[in-house]
Amino acid sequence: MDSKSGTETPQESGVESFFNSAPPLKDRDQISQKLEDFITKISISSESGKPIRVVCVTSGGTTVPLEQRCVRYIDNFSSGNRGAASTEYFVKAGYAVIFVHRRGSCQPYCRYLPQDSFLDFFDIAENSTIKVCEPHGTVVKGAIRDYRKAVEEGFLLKLPFTTIFEYLQILQMVATSMRCLKSHGMFYLAAAVSDFYVPWENMAKHKIQSAEGPLDMRLNQVPKMLLVLRKDWAPAAFCISFKLETDPDILLQKADMAMRKYGMHVVVANELATYKREVSVVTSGEKTRVCSHGQDHDLEEELIDILVARHTEHIKKSSRIDVNEAL
Amino acid sequence: MDSKSGTETPQESGVESFFNSAPPLKDRDQISQKLEDFITKISISSESGKPIRVVCVTSGGTTVPLEQRCVRYIDNFSSGNRGAASTEYFVKAGYAVIFVHRRGSCQPYCRYLPQDSFLDFFDIAENSTIKVCEPHGTVVKGAIRDYRKAVEEGFLLKLPFTTIFEYLQILQMVATSMRCLKSHGMFYLAAAVSDFYVPWENMAKHKIQSAEGPLDMRLNQVPKMLLVLRKDWAPAAFCISFKLETDPDILLQKADMAMRKYGMHVVVANELATYKREVSVVTSGEKTRVCSHGQDHDLEEELIDILVARHTEHIKKSSRIDVNEAL
């Protein structure tokens, strides 16, 4: 992959026009500062010992606004559970994680906490302090400890997004800031990213009125950023993308295609009907099934183990290439 | 409003075909049982004193699936904050509330609790119990107490929905079960209901593929159920609907139209840019502005006050009509 080829493909011009027409990120400066601080801290820690690996985990679905003053939007089904669980296992494996997540989606260390019936979780003790109803106490205590440790030691940075416009701009910022990590960087792209969008300038300014019969909409394709990520933003990083389909007949074929077309190192393939219990790790020439062994067992534990091993190989291979190039 | 007029309008046949084509509610029997228990408990309490009023509060946005095995859907922007806050004030005013809400949206008594940074809220005390970080402790204690009281005394029933299909089927069930309450029933329809949907039988079975250029979609209008609610489901109840617009120029005109067209008693009009700070209560011939007096003040407090007073008038008027009819 060479970023200096000079010839621009139609795909790339789609990327440019997407970014040019996107509404600018509101908190760009703060995000930029947070990223700089995070990467600097990692780099300093790395100098005094074994290099720390950094993974950007994306999680949850992106929205596509249908109106500029947005009342309606298209959304992608995603609880964010996989990204949250994976983040915990990456931290456990010694990775620093940049968790790029949909606002309100599942958060690391919060997976066992209730969302809807929050207040059923707590009670007021006789001495009028708040207590967590058993048997949840132990789980919550562990979660608070692990979460605090990860944040305080600089192993977890959380960046939220809502729209496809925010997501892709943040991904670009994260990727370019991770470029300096070379092969020690990893992208674990579990977010459910919209395939279609309405360009900002074509969008209705106000809420679409419902009095005028059926609504016809034309949605454009979102340019495939995976290619640009691999080619331009962070070419030395280890890249894992996800493929979700509802039709098992086309799943592996699509996973394989994604790998070749976008230069992914690994594609994790999952089916909507079984995604909680089973995924397939697809690499060139190999397919490994990873299954959950029951309700209390995260398949992400084994999945992250496999990916960490593959990342190690990638780092070794890259360092051999670097040595050869230096000779 | 007469349900026995015999002539069916095009609007009504739209209603019928909507329900016929909707995927059936999975937990219909449980919902039905919960409603029966709730209304029975209220009726028994009412017999031994002042009749208890019941309000159905709908809250949050409905989704419109774009695929039968749904990966993508259209959603409506709504945090559910207004419905959750209003529920608290209705309970305070002595109403029993059926809170029909979008899964994962804001819940009554949970408005001051964090969603994304949940774990920042807690700490582990020296004796290794979990404590709520100050200054949140007092708020959380009050919330737990009020919530428990409302549920245990039978003043709060929560029913969740996600899709437009679930929402309208549940609303129909709630409305017909509240019919027996006559003018003591109220509908406070704050949910952001989709105006457009894809009929189940027209829907793509599998995830729509993105390889084939732009996506053209045709969405049908969701039949206006307000009319059917007023006319057939619960004709004696007091009905309040909401109108959200982004364009202030058309807002009041649309609110007025909704009132006349669907026979609403009150329409609460709000603008997207200012909906947290200001609403207008529109009745025939009158418009009252309700504003928030600052960040810590809920405009719902005054709003519910006004609506409770209007509901009292409605009950008095209805009982005069009943007496006259009996003579």
From TrEMBL, chains A, B:
<feature type="compositionally biased region" description="Polar residues">
    <location>
        <begin position="1"/>
        <end position="20"/>
    </location>
</feature>
<feature type="domain" description="DNA/pantothenate metabolism flavoprotein C-terminal">
    <location>
        <begin position="55"/>
        <end position="106"/>
    </location>
</feature>
<dbReference type="InterPro" id="IPR007085">
    <property type="entry name" value="DNA/pantothenate-metab_flavo_C"/>
</dbReference>
<feature type="domain" description="DNA/pantothenate metabolism flavoprotein C-terminal">
    <location>
        <begin position="172"/>
        <end position="277"/>
    </location>
</feature>
<dbReference type="GO" id="GO:0015937">
    <property type="term" value="P:coenzyme A biosynthetic process"/>
</dbReference>
<feature type="region of interest" description="Disordered">
    <location>
        <begin position="1"/>
        <end position="26"/>
    </location>
</feature>
<dbReference type="GO" id="GO:0003824">
    <property type="term" value="F:catalytic activity"/>
</dbReference>
<protein>
    <recommendedName>
        <fullName>DNA/pantothenate metabolism flavoprotein C-terminal domain-containing protein</fullName>
    </recommendedName>
</protein>
<dbReference type="Pfam" id="PF04127">
    <property type="entry name" value="DFP"/>
</dbReference>
<dbReference type="InterPro" id="IPR035929">
    <property type="entry name" value="CoaB-like_sf"/>
</dbReference>
<comment type="similarity">
    <text>Belongs to the PPC synthetase family.</text>
</comment>
